[in-house]
Amino acid sequence: MDLERLLSDRLAPAFATVAGGPVDPLVRRSPRADFQSDAALALARRLGRPPRDIADEVLRHAVLDDVCAAAEVSGPGFVNLTVADGALVRMVAALAGDDRLGVPVTGTPETVVVDYSAPNVAKEMHVGHLRSTVIGDAAVRLLDWLGHRVVRVNHLGDWGTPFGMLIEHLVDLGEAEAAEELSMGDLDSFYRAARGKFDADEAFRERSRRRVVALQGGDERTRQLWRLLVEQSERYFLTVYDLLDVTLTGDDFRGESAYDDRLAGVVEDLDGLGLLRASDGAACVFPPGFVGRDGEPLPLIVRKSDGGFGYPATDLAALRHRTGDLGATRLLYVVGLPQRQHFAMVFAVAGAAGWLRPPARAEHLGFGSILGADGRMLRSRAGESVKLVGLLEEAVARATELALAKDPGLDAGTAAEIGRAVGIGAIKYADLATDRGKDYVLDWERMLSLDGNTAPYLQYAYSRIRSVFRRAGAAARPDAPVVLAGPAERALAVELLGFAAVVAQVERSLEFHHLAGYLHRLATTFSAFYERCPVLRAPDEVRESRLLLADLTARTLRQGLHLLGIRTVERM
Ligand code: ARG
What we know:
By secondary structure, this protein is an alpha/beta fold. Helices cover 54% and strands 9% of the residues. The strands form 4 sheets. It has a 4-stranded antiparallel β-sheet. It has a 4-stranded parallel β-sheet with strand order 6-5-10-11, with helices on both faces.
């Protein structure tokens, strides 16, 4: 049970009595007391009464004696709550014996499809795919831990007209050579070379066009060449996932091609539902409410004028598969914000067609861009988009160097392990600690700093606690009596009891900066506690209790970082 929930459950019946119906007490952390409820202010207008009166009456009805040391009305009508030490002690003791750190398994498990990463075959992964991969993987980890059935889908761009020129280029190079170039991760130069020929050479263009037709017609040899391209790219993407330490595997690839044989059915059914309209030779749906800059209704093109299907039709088929065949009720799409309108229209059309009906719902988890130090889109010195692996390798190299500078005696293996955990952790954390919708600047100094809201700071806090236990020569006793002797211990207890509330909030919002912010607050609260409260030198009973608090902090940091996809190390 977390504190916010407990207090909320106590206030809710009192508010209901006063308001004559259910009210969310809006309990949250407060700098003035431990917690504060603002609900009386919102109710004042509805009930036509002064908010302070409402708050007073709520406090007369609420049963709080066993959990609060003080409950009072303040300011314009806030209810301030100070939790009783006895209640804190009881709850921390329960937390210490709980493997899940107070976070319950969900009572309403769902099938959730997380569509993330989704790079394009024979094209380099760029930093946008980095954000999708990192955010999507955090969503997978969190929802899975809460007990949902999570289906990862890597909606690979493996289909469409570019494959004509890619296959022809492959034929020109020879299979062996092409395979080698692709497996080395030289995806961009392969793509550029194909594109170059396509733009310059009419004969090549013609071959490419015929090749697309052969691919779509299921020509055996063409399919074989296409498979080669896809497999080499997949193999390369898997090495990036491995370096990035994400949970995606080869089984999670389900590219656009997987829906090819359903596209005609999608368009037919939309037609049967009377949703299709012809526009310039294309078959379109005009979902209500979408208009362009000129005020004209916007089409979602499901069949192009050349008869081909494209990206929108594929997404409709994929969505229908996810709700219809997989039985998913929550669909998440972790894709950059430039595709916001695309998804809004796809969801609207799927809704109109009856493929997306409550309780099933779809959410586009959009995100902003990663910027360079100059505040513009991150680019390499040559002005090209930055190669993801290069970025990751640089992070690991920098972090390894920092670890060795701090402790020149480290053996190479340990330095490499720390470098990897810290370097990759720093990249992921910088991403997840920022509000998802915003852009952020990739700033090496800041994200690798041991101070501030960074992965290294949290990893260091964790390793410092572990070193206390090494020196203690023993683990914490989870059944040790909890003693809250001073304000620093008390503050730490309140913070530890907040983990479940933040996890519940992120389960709904999938805004991981709330979890990151919580972990950072926990680590700073621990550090204040550690400065003021000696652990190993304290008298026996206090020492046991402080070890228990330290251990709970370490476990919470570790679990929280794990949910973000970030490793902890025992020493750094
Ligand atoms: N391959 C696309 C890109 O690189 C992203 C696909 C996202 N997922 C989807 N279901 N449309 O932009």
